[in-house]
Amino acid sequence: MHKNTFLISQYILFYTLLCSTSLKSEAKQAEFKSYGMVAIGYRKDIIKNSRGEYLVKYLDEQERKKYKVKFKRGYFYGKECGVYKPQSGEFIFVMDEWGKFYIGKKIDKRFHHSSFLAGAPAASAGILTLEEGRLTSISAYSGHYMTSKIMFKQALAKLHSEQVPNIKDVMQKKTLADRLNNVVRSWVRFFQLRYSCEREDFPCRPD
């Protein structure tokens, strides 16, 4: 009798552990689909200076925390001197597969969309402007990731979940030049493989 009770208790314990492990693995699944950069983006990032150092900055995990956005009641807050404050200005942004938003100022040949995730695939990328944390405009422009409609919709879905107001009103209206540019970009995307590789591992490997 006692032996059967012991076996049953062991079975229940095993089943509980199995279920908890399964739930944890499901929780770790990415929220959004990510896409690698196009070849043009990588060619920009592998340029070196006279000392053999890469010009474009790639952030490590610790450095990345400085650029992470915290949403409060639909407003964008960024870290300044260790304190989260409402942000203002024009920024480039990237969202990873977990829905984490990163924003920063673009510096030509120094800090690009690829800098945030160190060249890794992104769920979305573009440009946005803020006034005291309030989103005033957003676009899908990124030469590195060639942000597609699907990628841009993922960013909008994340912003909607964070209760960012008037998202449709602040989306930049496309001009004729923008539409022609999008046609060119779509052909570039069609003929180029998206890449996913580590900075030290060139030539890059296709997905």
Task: Provide structural commentary.
The chain is α+β, with helices and mostly antiparallel strands. It has one domain. 36% of the residues lie in helices and 20% in strands. The protein contains seven helices and nine strands. A four-stranded antiparallel beta sheet has the order 6-5-7-8. A hairpin with a 2-residue loop joins strand 3 and strand 4. It is globular. The termini are far apart.
Based on CA atoms alone, the radius of gyration comes out at: 21 Å
Beta-strand percentage range:
15-25%
Series of H and E elements: HEHHEEEEEHEEHHHE
Mean pLDDT level: 79
How many strand units?
9
Q: Which residues sit in consecutive blocks of at least 5 with pLDDT less than 50?
A: 6-27, 198-207
- Which overall shape is indicated by the principal axes computed on the Cα atoms? globular
Major beta sheet summary: 4 strands, antiparallel
Class based on secondary structure composition and strand pairing: alpha+beta
Order of strands, main sheet, comes to: 6-5-7-8
N- to C-terminal distance: 58 Å
Into which percent range does the helicity of residues fall?
A: 25-40%
Topology readout:
Blueprint: H1 2-27, E1 37-38, H2 39-45, H3 61-64, E2 70-72, E3 75-80, E4 83-86, E5 89-95, E6 101-104, H4 113-116, E7 124-131, E8 134-139, H5 149-161, H6 167-170, H7 176-191, E9 194-195
Q: Key terms for this structure?
A:
207 residues; disordered C terminus; alpha+beta; three-stranded antiparallel β-sheet; four-stranded antiparallel β-sheet; 7 helices
Short structural description:
This protein is an alpha+beta fold and 207 residues long. The protein is 36% helix and 20% strand. The protein contains seven helices and nine strands, in the order αβααβββββαββαααβ.
